[in-house]
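Writing this down once: the sequence line spells out the residues, with the fold written below as integer tokens. I am pasting one below:
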Amino acid sequence: MSTHKQTPEKTTNVLIGGEAGQGLVTIGLILAKSLVRSGYQIVVTQSYESRIRGGHNTFAIRLASHDVVAPQESIDLLVALNAETVELHASELSPQGALVADEAFATAQQPCLAVPFKELAGKRFVNTAALGVTAAVLGLAKDLVSKVIEDTFGAKHPEALEENRRVLDKAFSWVTQQPTIVEKLPPVADRPRRMMLNGNEAIALGALSAGLRFYSFYPMTPSTSIAATLIQHVEALGGGVEQAEDEIAAINMAIGASFAGARAMVGTSGGGFALMTEGVSLAAMTETPLVIAVAQRPGPATGLPTRTEQADLELVLHAGHGEFPRAIFSPGTVEDCFHTTRKAFELAEACQSPVFVLTDQFLADSYRAVLPPEIEEPPRADLERPPSGCPLPYRRYTLTESGISPRILPGTSEHLVVADSDEHTEDGHLTEDLEVRKQMTQKRLRKADAIRAQVIAPEFNGDANADLLLVSWGSTKGSAVEAAEMMRSNGRRVATLHFNQVWPLLPEQFIRHLETAGEVTTVEGNATGQFARLIRRETGFHITRRVLRFDGLPITPEYIVRELNRRE
């Protein structure tokens, strides 16, 4: 890749701030969907407190007519639904930034549009007025925004639809009589049809596309929206979602469903997953396919339940007593959430082992504009009864060279299917024969070869033999890539190495990039450099320089560059 100076392409960052209960998420979602339908790319960052009402929440949309891959710190348009938003964020406005606020707390310190919201909307539809003013300021088409409102509220609240349209009209008309405070967005000529999805929605859809038929969960932020998405679709596909009484019940329900033949997944966050760890071992011992989605948030204990972090890697890697193989995927984009979840199901089914999808609050709640995925039909075939080549009488845990035994669903044939959480013989019955114990442990561990054969190689971008290599995993992908672009624009030779799968690690896939770079830095959302430590454990390569963030906020490109410059 060339190292000549490049001028970063322009983007616009809109931040809507207010209290929970003011409807700022509704504004943000409708505005984001209107932008996507207008042809723009987006990256949404949601920040919210763990409160039903009150507290300070924000909904930020970074947008451009070209690809955007990361959040942005500076604000180009600040939409304040309360005075606190002005106090907290006015200083973050870019040099060309402007403020939209109610006339009661508008300020003259920067370009500001003081809006008479009560005149435009009364009390009930202030959020619709704020949406209309914001959309008009940006230059979006009123009819397009109106259609998005209709699609959002029309069927559920037809009585409010006309009032929403009336307020939207008044807001657009009012803006036409005001001075321009920000440059309007350039029109997008090519508007391919895109979906607006966040990470959790993509995980849910990826699971459905892979043949999911059962999902169990206990509600825990930020994983709950996986279940909410599945509930909308799974029954039409012949499956179901079950809210359990706790996380222990949830994972055991999923294991039971999978044992009976339904492709199953369970979702949770760190604290809930801590309760599931015995179930992880049960899935491994019974050799039951299971996908487990873990959406990370800051701990220990309840920590910051609505913020983001990447501090559960070591928890997931070592969860479950005893020794058995596993795979851990760490999607870096919304598209990755879809495709790695599909792969997780295929791998769990093929290797009859627990497989993990590790995400976090930032990616879980971050909406993007994505093209509909091109996929084949799910590789789902009914289990043979019995499988071809299966020696009879049937033994569920037949010792094989691959470690993967023939699997027949219970109750579907004349063959007896026995499962046992204790150590067991080939036919599934409990044993304390220590030689059998040794053979069964070795059999289960041999599955690691099949898992290793399908590891996703890390993605390398940038200059070979770069002066600086940024190593990232999970949701830090976009920020690392953009930070590298920012530094290359200043003449530095910078490359990135991103891991969509963090276990197993195959050194032969990436060690040459580490060894040929002038300097290697990991970018992680935790305090101890967990992935850097894992790389050292598996390769012997010690990454001493680390960009870490653990205050509950997502890593941004500006944060990476700032941290690197601070330490030079």
User: Anything to note?
Assistant: The longest strand covers residues 54-64. The chain is about 35% helix and 20% strand. The two ends are 24 Å apart (CA to CA).
